[in-house]
User: What shape does this take?
Amino acid sequence: MANEGQFNLQLQMSKSGTTANKQKSANFTITGTDFTAGVIDVTTSGGAITLPSNIGTPGYAFFYNHDATNYVEVGNHNGGSPIYTARLKAGEGALMRLTMAANAINIRANTATCRVEYMIFED
Assistant: This one.
């Protein structure tokens, strides 16, 4: 079977007479059948979202920062210290396809502990 997943994205901006609007929808195929989801408290020391063993290769991931003030950073390990490649400001979310073959996603808060919601699908 194909096209088991779907996402809808919309991005708008209007400031000082400049406007932009982009909308996209797409279907995607999921090879596996598993996913993991939850809400975690992320500290400034950082932590990891450990993927269960039934997710062999991570695919699409959704993250949402529930904090009203502080941002969080999302990344992974590259053999040593975490490399943070995405930032979610207060109240922001992001959809991305993960490209690493790791069993954990690293995440840390900037100034104070933040609640972060996540959903990660097997590719």
